[in-house]
From TrEMBL:
Keyword terms, alphabetized: DNA-binding, Nucleus, Repeat, Transcription, Transcription regulation
Region annotation (Disordered) ranges: 1-25
Compartment(s) of residence: Nucleus
GO cellular component assignments: nucleus
Protein name: Uncharacterized protein
InterPro entries cross-referenced by the UniProt entry: Homeodomain-like_sf, Myb_dom, Plant_Male-Germline_Reg_TFs, SANT/Myb
Biased segments, Basic and acidic residues type: 16-25
Domain HTH myb-type per the UniProt entry, residue ranges: 19-67, 72-127
Composition bias, Basic residues: 1-15
Keyword presence, Transcription regulation: yes
Length: 175
């Protein structure tokens, strides 16, 4: 029985040694170059082989996420969603719900995180707009967070909002 316990301790120690060799944190430019060279040679797959070949001390998951979110050449980072992209997100979110990766697959150059952040910002912006137009006459209903309406109110009008782009909705509310 003691031998089995001793063996478990060695296994735990061995696992800890392996984990300590995994690099975490900020990526260096040299690491990005190694990853780009790997993708150029093998394509965007076999992420775990990067570590097993001794190219990087990063996990396969970390390498895949770095490629998907930062290094892909067709990424649209820092630019606003077009009206067409907005329409696609609204349509697909109504169909699939909050399946951001599935929605992002329909948008060239957009990551699931981009889509999720866009959706979240859009919902907050629309809630603020709705509240400022409907809550302006009753200051008691305004919240401490800049006249935001409550989440249940937002979700109950979600179906209505889905049929409009942000710009169309703002124009309709102002008129």
């Amino acid at each position: 029985m003691e031998a089995a316990t001793g063996k478990k301790k060695k296994t735990k120690k061995k696992r800890k040694d392996v984990e300590s060799r995994v690099r975490k944190g900020t990526w260096k430019a040299e690491e990005d170059q190694v990853l780009l060279k790997h993708v150029e040679q093998y394509g965007p797959r076999e992420w775990s082989s990067i570590r097993s070949k001794g190219l990087l001390q990063r996990t396969g998951k970390s390498c895949r996420l770095r490629w998907v979110n930062k290094l892909q050449p067709n990424l649209k980072t820092g630019c606003k969603f077009t009206e067409e992209e907005e329409r696609v997100v609204i349509e697909l979110q109504a169909r699939y719900g909050n399946k951001w990766a599935r929605i992002a697959a329909h948008l060239t150059g957009r990551t699931d995180n981009d889509v999720k952040n866009f959706w979240s910002s859009r919902q907050k912006r629309l809630a603020r707009i709705l509240c400022t137009t409907s809550c302006s006459s009753s200051p008691a209903s305004a919240s401490a967070y800049g006249n935001l309406i409550s989440l249940p109110e937002v979700t109950s009008i979600h179906f209505f909002l889905s049929s409009f782009s942000s710009k169309q909705l703002i124009v309709n509310l102002i008129q």
